[in-house]
Amino acid sequence: MINASSDTKAQGHDLIGGIGAVTTYGVLLPDIELLWTAWWSVSTVGRAISAMQYISCLMYPENENPVFAPWTPNAGGGPPCLWDFEGHLYSHRWLEPNVAFLKRVLNVPGVSQVLSRAAQRLVDQPEHEVAALMNVDL
Fold this sequence. Notes:
Oligomer: single chain
Largest sheet: none
Number of helices: 6
């Protein structure tokens, strides 16, 4: 997830598996800030793509997300669920230090800055058009 591949509509599954890993990490370990900060630095094209994908799930209803191909009965698809985690866990919530961190970073100004940097990183990539559209929508 953190270094997603190009061709977002076709490769949305890159994020889907990664979301489960990140949310599971948030339930089990108290230092999501380390992982999240590196990811949202958008220091690589892959990180920019996956940050854009994640932000799209925050911004758009499931059936209106411009990043992920719509779900169909035959092919699946659609955006991932941001709160699903992997495995059988006895605790079903993120650890408090992680929740406190997300409260600080998951706000409109913070998300807007990350999306803007992601769009800049993607200037020469196929995902740039969608990232620019998302910037306008945000």
